[in-house]
Amino acid sequence: MLRASRGVLVQCDPSIRALILQIDNERPGIVLEELDDSHLLIKQDKIDVVKDELNKLLSKNIYNPFEEE
Amino acid sequence: MSSGNLFKATVNEYLEGLPRNVQSKLYEAPATCLSIFRLLPPMAKFYIMSMLFNEQSVALRDLDRWCKPSAKKLQYESLKRLKSLHLIEDDKLANHIQLNKTFRQNFRDCLTGSQDSNAFGTLCVAVDKHKVDIAFLDTFASSKWETILHFMVGTESTATPSKSVLSLLRSGGLMEGHASSLKITNTGFQFLLQDVNVQIWTLLLQYLNLTQELNMDPVDVLNFLFMLGSLELGKSYMVSSLSATQVSMLADLRDYGLVYQRSDSSGRFYPTRLATTLTSDSAALKTPSMALEQTLQTTDENDNPQPTEAPSSSQGSIIVETNFKIYSYSNSPLEIAILNLFVHLRTRFANMVCGQITRESIRKALYNGITADQIIKFLETHAHPQMQLLAKEKLDKKIEFDASHNINTAGGAPQSKGSDSNVQQHKLEILPPNIVDQIKLWQLELDRIQTFDGYLFKDFSTQQEFEILSNYASEVGVLIWSDKTKKKFFITEGGLDQVKNYANRKFK
């Protein structure tokens, strides 16, 4: 039977997708459905959490010229 | 970027949001009809033109035949616009529509020239003793408008705009604080980077909100604004043909530089270019150029009113090093303010500032809706002559090298990747290429995930069912993602009702 479910579609490249799945592993209940290599369906109220975590993960490897001074 | 749209299309939204009776009152003025028509997208214009002289109502089915199936999305959007403006109405016959009667009559009059002679203002026939020409009006308009912009970024030694302008800036959230210490807000910065036409409309809409509080008739106000948009530049018009509300608006519009009036008691007014381009696509004082570049170039285009500021911008002053350090030999507060948008400024000397481009500083700018291309363009156009000289020397050397070795090294350069021509050409690289690439990469980094709110449709019982529904969703332009083999598709939030209704009709 046809169903429609509410959520947020996230479009990203596979590397980011892997990161999101990793976040989901640590705190389950974020990803509702894995659609394909570049699309995920995510629970609506969890999208900010994902963005925050992603930001944290991504900025780990950034060089900041002011830190060493 | 989406935040760039903050100010866009606001006129249309405002009009669509008006109550129906106000809209129909608006359509009583031919000048307004013409202006609203000019603001519509091409497809909507086409529909109006084809229904204008047709007394009969038109079947929705016929509308479908007028456009290619591939243009369904455009058609859907145009009809939605027309409906929310109440320009088209449903007929008694089911599935038939017709043009709003008032609009039809007045728009016809205005096209055939049979409108009331007063509809587009009354020209002054008598010769003005203090006649002004178009050049004067342009200078007047831009100096008024520049005063507002300069005041916003806090350029020293600029006159403070009038009180009414200040209250507009504050109520529009463009500036905050008390009257003596107004500070520009984030939205204000965004505003500065917009095209002039958008800026004017933003202020005018704010003005409209204020006038409602002052119990001025919004229809009267809007009619006047739209009429201004249809007047002829360089001609003077009679004040006496305006309504009392409109006369009181003149003083305010003069402060914004939209109209010129020699004195309060003068019986005539001249619309300036800012006013006459309100509803047209043609450029206002400046072309809708790249935003950053535009804000600065205005200073040298209009160097007459502020001669002291011109030299710094007409001649580039910025040096960018490969280690992301930036030096700007400029005293213009406007330029420094703009640099401050995307550069981490560290020290300021008497004749220069220096700073550093960092990931954070660029991200801050990107969050504010400035694009990487804008930043690069800005740096390029304001590069120090020395940088340009260096870049030219490098380019000459490269070309010479290629010629003497009979090879083409440009193909490998990261900059020329996108070039379509078979023979790769060397490009003049004013900025260090690593900086350009890095800024672009930082922008890409922000766009790494895109999110869409909406609904996922799944568990279709047959492939056919899936295809019917997903085709429909893509036709009306709400489909974002679909997968044939998994029989799933995703639509936007707003499209749910439509697709649901269609499914109910189709399958039950």
Give the structure's gist in a few sentences.
The complex is a heterodimer of chains A (69) and B (508). Chain A is α+β, with helices and mostly antiparallel strands.
Distance N to C terminus of chain A = 63 Å
* Topology, number of strands of chain A: 3
How many discrete domains of chain A? 1
Q: Report on the biggest sheet of chain A.
A: 3 strands, antiparallel
Shape of chain A: elongated
Indicate the proportion of strand residues of chain B.
5-15%
Shape, per Cα inertia axes of chain B: globular
Task: Supply the CATH superfamily name of chain A.
Answer: TFB5-like
Radius of gyration of chain A: 15 Å
On the 0-100 scale, what is the average pLDDT of chain B? 78
CATH fold label of chain A: Alpha-Beta Plaits
Order of helices and strands of chain A: EHEEH
Walkthrough of the structure:
- The complex is a heterodimer of chains A (69) and B (508).
- In chain A, strand 2 (31-36) and strand 3 (39-42) form a beta hairpin.
- The N and C termini of chain A lie far apart (63 Å).
- Chain A has a single domain, classed as 2-Layer Sandwich (Alpha-Beta Plaits).
- Chain A is elongated and about 60 Å long.
- The longest helix of chain A is centred in the N-terminal third of the chain and has 13 residues, at 14-26.
- Chain A has helices spanning 14-26, 47-59, and strands spanning 3-12, 31-36, 39-42.
- A three-stranded antiparallel sheet of chain A has the order 1-3-2.
- The model of chain A has no long low-confidence stretch (mean pLDDT 84).
- Chain A contains two helices and three strands; from the N terminus they run E-H-E-E-H.
- Chain A has 69 residues and is α+β, with helices and mostly antiparallel strands.
- Chain B has a four-stranded antiparallel sheet, covered by helices on one side. Chain B has a three-stranded antiparallel sheet with strand order 1-3-2. A three-stranded antiparallel sheet of chain B has the order 6-8-7.
- Chain B is of the alpha+beta class.
- Chain B is 51% helix and 11% strand.
- The radius of gyration of chain B is 27 Å and the shape is globular.
- In chain B, helix 3 (30-39) crosses helix 7, helix 18 crosses helix 21 and helix 19 (372-381) packs antiparallel against helix 21.
- Chain B has helices at 10-17, 20-26, 30-39, 42-52, 60-66, 72-84, 101-112, 134-153, 163-171, 186-192, 196-213, 218-230, 244-256, 273-276, 291-301, 310-314, 333-342, 359-367, 372-381, 385-405, 433-446, 463-475, 496-507; strands at 58-59, 88-90, 96-99, 175-176, 183-184, 237-238, 259-260, 268-271, 318-320, 325-328, 344-348, 353-356, 449-458, 479-483, 488-492.
- Chain B has four domains: 2-112, Arc Repressor Mutant, subunit A; 134-276, no CATH class; 313-409 and 426-450, no CATH class; 454-507, Alpha-Beta Plaits (2-Layer Sandwich), CATH 3.30.70.
- The interface between A and B is medium-sized, with 31 and 32 residues.
- Strand 1 (3-12) of chain A pairs antiparallel with strand 13 (449-458) of chain B.
